[in-house]
Amino acid sequence: EALWILTWMISKVALHPKLIATPVIQRLNQVLETSPEEEGSLELFRAATRLIGTLLSGDEGNACQMMDMGTIKLLTGFLSYPNTEVRRDVLWGMSNLLANSPITVAKCMREDMHVKIFECARTPDMPIAMQQDLWWCAVNLTRVSKSNQIQQLVRTPFYCATLAQALLTTDPILSAEAIDSVSRVLSVGNQMGAALSASMSTSDAENGFSNPNPYLDYFIEQYRAEYPDGDPRSEKLKNIIDNIGYGYVSGGEVEDDEL
Questions:
Q1: Deepest in the core among 11, 65, 86, 90, taking most CB within 10 A?
Q2: What is the pLDDT of residues 164-194, one digit of tens each?
Q3: How far apart (Å, rounded) are the C-alpha atoms in residues 29 and 24?
Q4: Cα(10)–Cα(227) distance, integer angstroms
Q5: Which of 57, 41, 73 is closest to 7 using CA atoms?
Q6: Cβ–Cβ under 8 Å, residues 109 and 149
Q7: pTM for this model (two decimals)
Q8: What does DSSP assign to residue 257?
Q9: How many angstroms separate the CA atoms of 115 and 137, rounded?
Q10: Is a pLDDT exceeding 80 seen at residue 219?
Q11: How many helices (H) and strands (E) does the chain have?
Q12: What angle separates helix 60-68 from helix 41-56, to the nearest 10 degrees?
């Protein structure tokens, strides 16, 4: 109960910088090292994960400290846990972590945490609430990633498929974020295509091979694999992605500098 009360207090008052002390993180780590299957541990575990997610919300300092102390690595270990509610709590916490900055994204990628997150897309009959947490992971991660990080994400299994699914959500805020995220990915593809076309010979350019966007075709392959021909969702995705790809829907600029 103390963890739930602490979570509520932090969500109502800006206590994050003063409250996140080393003993607090150490206690959270102890909870994460205990199996939720032990008697009475499930509620304690869920309270700890919700507190972690709240502390991670918009606070890069807390995020880096918990990553350095191993809290986030322990947390991601439960992304394959059988209990759906546990996995959902973990995904929610990770979505807050990934919304922080390119620095926290880089730390996650060095540990391959993004790979573990998108492997959750394999979950059969995933509840819609858990799907939304996974979609938020994708859009939050894309929002703060730089060009080189997005190139790495596109090569991550289920990342593009997750973004494509998020485009179809009925949540207007999430849908707008998904459009912006896909636009950012395709913007990086345009940068790569422009560099490729600049290196092409004159004969290649004359044959129409100018400024290709490798990521546009990749998204098309993803939604065709997800939704077969004739499925109305396939046509809707095609129209959205085509509009983004050809500049009818615009998204944010993507920084190109390396970390």
A1: 90
A2: 888 888 899 998 899 899 888 888 888 776 6
A3: 9
A4: 42
A5: 57
A6: yes
A7: 0.79
A8: -
A9: 12
A10: no
A11: 16, 0
A12: 130
Query: In the chain, which residue ranges form alpha helices assigned H by DSSP?
Result: 2-12, 16-19, 22-32, 41-56, 60-68, 71-76, 84-98, 102-110, 113-118, 128-144, 147-154, 159-166, 172-198, 202-206, 214-226, 232-245
Residue 70's pLDDT band, with cuts at 50, 70 and 90, is very high
Q: Which residue has the tokens 């800006």?
A: 14
- Placement of tokens 């350019």 in the chain: 205
SS3 130: helix
- The one-letter amino acid at 124: P
Q: Which amino acid is at 194?
A: A
| pLDDT the model gives residue 140 | 93
Compute the 3-state secondary structure of the chain and give helix, strand, coil in percent, each to the nearest 5.
70, 0, 30
| CA-based radius of gyration for the chain | 20
What is the DSSP track for 59-96?
-HHHHHHHHHTTHHHHHHTTTT-S-HHHHHHHHHHHHH
The answer to whether the CB of 145 falls within 8 A of the CB of 153 is: yes
